[in-house]
Write a structure and sequence with these properties.
single chain, 254 residues, mainly alpha, 12 helices
Amino acid sequence: MELSITLMGLFVGTLVGLTGVGGAALLTPLLIVLGINPSIAVGTDLVYNSITKLFGVAQHYKQRTINFKLAKYLAFGSIPSAVLAIVTLHAFPSFHEHQETIIKHALGYVMTLVAISIIFRVFFDKLIRPNRFQEMDLNQKKGLTIGIGVVFGFIVGLTSIGSGSLFAIAMLYLFKLKTPELVGTDIAHAFLLVTVAGILNASFGSVDYMLTANLLTGSIPGVLLGSRLSTKVPSRPLQAIMATIILISGIKLI
């Protein structure tokens, strides 16, 4: 079991390095398929994500490619919303008794949404950018930014999916950011969000630390390998293939 988890971490990490597509949409469903309880899969993935994103934050902080104001506004909405989702799922008996079913169905819908957003980005990107929202000052979009955080934060708290992919799509089309700044801001905000959500899940006993360690053992070299190969392998076809896999998996979970 430990070897299969490590190999799965290697597989997911390599794909993330190759395509830049968030690993949670692949990892959480795979853990459930392997027999991990859905709430444990979600909590473990959040802690795993927090650790992996910490290294990314450190690098982007050195490069000064983080828009802290944008990350702050997103966090104002996303963190309380994620906390609400997690507390609702664990603290209320009526939800706690059916949390396995709730998480599976929520995963299905969110994976479908993530897959569609990836496909949209791959094939229709040039039709949307530039647009008038990108030209607006961030202060003019403060309410919208916090609102995006509220909606997507609840989704992340419930499923662990979307801390990178969904927020990245929103930032891509609503804010005028250079690519390094977009990536850095996305990682910085995601780190804040998944760290708080991971700690809260841990307090409810929904984290398997040995599972986290085995995943990291495989995924860290996988990301490094995938990043090296990314210059030789076209990412757009791979993103489209991954989106199709995520879409099919999501529909099956609904």
